[in-house]
Amino acid sequence: CLQYGYLQNLTYDNIFNTPCAQNQYAPLSSLDTSSKFTFVGLGNSTRCSVLLQERLNESVCTSTTCSFNNVYQPKPISASLKFIAISAWYTTFQNLAPNVSLSPDQDGNFNFSKVNFSQIKAAINAICNQPWSDQLPPKDQYRPFLCFNSMYHWTLLEYGYSMNDTNLRNFQIVKKINSNDIGWTLGFMINQTNTISAEFRPTRLITQSEFAGLLFLCLLVLIASAIISGLAVRFCARRQGY
Fold first, then answer.
1. Over the chain, what is the mean pLDDT?
2. Mean pLDDT lowest for which of 18-32, 35-49, 73-87, 203-217?
3. What average pLDDT does this structure show over 91-111?
4. What is the pTM of this model?
5. Is 123 exposed, middle or buried (0-12, 13-18, 19+ CB in 10 A)?
6. In sequence order, what E strands does the chain have?
7. Fewer CB atoms near the end CB (10 Å): N or C, the chain?
8. How many Å apart are CA 180 and CA 182, to the nearest integer?
C-alpha cells in the first residue's frame, strides 16, 4: 500500500510498541530489539484493496445486519440519508481530488453528487502506481501514504458501510459548515481524557457527603427565610391594625 518505490525504515519499537501491536501481536523471539526493518512500496492497489477488505470482518453478526466487526448497521442504507466526513478525510481527499477532476465549492467542501466509485478507484490506482522517484523536491513526507489512506477510506465506505453510487450522491467531505471550520480537536480531547490515569486526574471539588451537607444547610436557610418572612408579614399586618 506504500507508493511505488518508496522505502520506509522502522525500528523494533516503531512496530511492536505501538498501541495496535501491544498485547495483540507477539514479536518473534528470534528478533532483537535493535532490529531495523525496511518496507518497500509496491503501489499494488489491487492487492492493497484485498488486504483492507479482509480486515473488515463481516463473517460474525449477532444482529440482523452489521457493517463489520459485529457492529449493527441498517442495510441497505437509505438513499435519502446525508453523510459528511471531516478532518483526515478532508486532508487525504484534498490531495486525491486533482486526480478525480473534482474541485471544492466556495467553502472548500467536496460534493460527490456527480462522482462515482469507479472514478475514485481509478484516481487511487493512479496515485499508488506513480513512482516515488517521479516526485519533485521538496517531497511531501505524507505523500507516500496517500495510496494507503485513500484506499482505506474508500474501502471502508464501500465494503465496510455498504455505500454505493446512489448513496455517494449525498456524501460530502467538508472543511466548513455555515462558514465555520470543522476540525477534530474537540473529539480528540474528549477521547484523550479517557486515557488519563486515575492517579493524575484532578480530585473532586466536593464529595457527596459535603454536597449533602450543603444541600441540608440550604434547605434550613430556605425554611428559616420562609418563617422570618411569615412573621414579618404578620407583624406588619398587626401594626396596620393599630
1. 84
2. 18-32
3. 89
4. 0.69
5. buried
6. 7-11, 36-40, 83-85, 110-111, 171-173, 176-177, 180-181
7. C
8. 6
Q: Residue 111 corresponds to which cell in the numbers above?
A: 460534493
SS3 content of the chain, % helix, strand, coil (to 5): 45, 10, 45
For the chain, give every domain's residue range: 42-198
- The neighbour count for residue 190, using CB atoms within 10 Å, is 9
Residue 139: all three cell numbers together: 517531497
130 is written with which cell numbers?
Answer: 506513480
pLDDT tens column, 110-157: 999 889 999 999 999 999 999 988 887 777 888 899 999 999 999 988
Kindly list the distances between the CA atom of residue 197 and the CA atoms of 18, 187, 194, 200, 207, in Å, as whole numbers in the listed order: 18, 19, 8, 6, 20
Residue 85's DSSP bridge partners are 173
DSSP string, 145-184: GHHHHHHHHHHIIIIIS---HHHHTTEEE-SEETTEE--S
Identify the pLDDT of residue 25.
Answer: 65
Q: CB of 43 within 8 A of CB of 5?
A: yes
At 182, the pLDDT band (50, 70, 90 cuts) reads confident
* Contact status, residue 10 vs residue 39, Cβ threshold 8 Å: yes
Q: Span 42-198: which CATH code? A: 3.30.420.150
Distance separating alpha carbons of residues 48 and 231, to the nearest angstrom: 84
